[in-house]
Amino acid sequence: QVQLVESGGGLVQPGGSLRLSCVASGSIFVIYGMGWYRQAPGKQRELVAGITYTGSTDYTESVKGRFTISRDNAKKTSYLQMKSLIPEDAAVYYCNADLQPRRGSGRYDYWGQGTQVAASS
Question: Residue 105: which pLDDT band, with cuts at 50, 70 and 90?
């Protein structure tokens, strides 16, 4: 069974930093794309950052210049480095992977369980 597990969330003061990690495990042939999404109370889930297999990245406008997504293919892990956090960044952050399982054909989206992030005084 493929599983994605996030870690690194927490509460920091405005202007602080957090680094989220997402580790994929199980029978995986290849992970094509990985991304981070967030959902705040009363709001729709939105894409924060995405990264392709080759390292091309895309960010939502509100986090450009502050957040950095990266990946380590050997470790099947993605990271979201968040700096200069503001209260509006508060949300549950979910990692996503677009991948092909090893045991069969096909390409599917998998999701982590979410990790809470907040920036307040």
Answer: confident
